[in-house]
Write a structure and sequence with these properties.
Number of strands: 0
Mean pLDDT: 83
Shape: globular
Largest sheet: none
Order of helices and strands: HHH
Helix content: 25-40%
Number of helices: 3
């Protein structure tokens, strides 16, 4: 999937724009079910397709940070699966990188 959208961190560092980044997300207009596979396995075609959309997203980082901060435990957010976000949260709580 080609990445043809301009890169931007819209609202990532402005507190009043907490979720303004949503308007610029690559997933706007994509069927939300794509991002909530029944089983999140590496190599699963649905997971692969969802991650491809995320990797081209101009607001990938604000999305990922939001999902981690909110404890979002389902779906693909910011090019991460729920298991990856749990690992990131554990590392953060343990004082890891």
């Amino acid at each position: 999937m080609p990445c043809d959208r301009p890169f931007s961190h819209a609202g990532a560092d402005r507190p009043n724009a907490a979720r303004a980044w949503l308007r610029e997300a690559a997933c706007v207009g994509v069927d939300p079910e794509l991002f909530f596979p029944l089983v999140e396995r590496d190599g699963d075609p649905q997971v692969t397709e969802a991650l491809a959309v995320c990797r081209c997203c101009p607001v990938l980082l604000p999305c990922r940070v939001w999902a981690i901060e909110q404890g979002e435990d389902a779906g693909i957010w910011g090019a991460t699966t729920a298991a990856q976000r749990r690992a990131i949260r554990r590392a953060m709580l343990a004082g890891g990188p």
